[in-house]
């Protein structure tokens, strides 16, 4: 079952349950996946579906952070609920310890020793953790190991 099929089923479920908050997020996700499918001109691969979900989640994280900076707590709560719905469709997130192990192994594999090697490390690392770990956490851990 593709992500689009799953979203369609979940959309119908949310409609029947009269869950407007979930319904709006599922509709938005379905539209984003459909638009990406049209843009690419073929059915999405699991990696492409993950990229769409990651992009949507990242937008909400940035939106939540800007609302927090503006002390808009009611909007922060709403965005957090949207993020929770998006996370349902994402793969399980890796723990910080798991990410740290992968970062350490990749730094050694690439032979990075200084901060200027960060691009090489990130290039080798991101395909391994894409969608499974927060990019900021990965970036912070790479910087930690390169210092």
UniProtKB/TrEMBL annotation:
Alphabetized InterPro entries for the sequence: Asn/Gln_tRNA_amidoTrase-B-like, GatB_Yqey_C_2, YqeY/Aim41, YqeY/Aim41_N
Gene Ontology molecular function: any one: carbon-nitrogen ligase activity, with glutamine as amido-N-donor
Pfam families reported for this sequence: YqeY (PF09424)
Signal peptide: none
Protein name (record): GatB/YqeY domain-containing protein
Protein's organism: Weissella coleopterorum
């Amino acid at each position: 079952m593709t992500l689009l099929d799953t979203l369609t089923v979940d959309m119908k479920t949310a409609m029947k349950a009269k869950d407007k908050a979930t319904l709006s997020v599922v509709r938005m996700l379905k539209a984003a996946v459909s638009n990406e499918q049209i843009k690419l001109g073929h059915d999405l691969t699991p990696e492409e579906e993950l990229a769409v979900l990651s992009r949507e989640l990242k937008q909400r994280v940035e939106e939540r952070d800007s609302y927090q900076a503006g002390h808009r707590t009611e909007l922060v709560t709403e965005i957090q609920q949207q993020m929770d719905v998006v996370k349902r469709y994402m793969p399980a997130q890796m723990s910080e310890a798991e990410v740290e192990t992968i970062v350490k192994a990749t730094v050694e594999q690439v032979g990075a020793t200084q901060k200027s090697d960060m691009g090489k490390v990130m290039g080798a690392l991101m395909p391994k953790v894409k969608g499974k770990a927060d990019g900021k956490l990965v970036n912070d851990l790479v910087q930690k190991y390169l210092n």
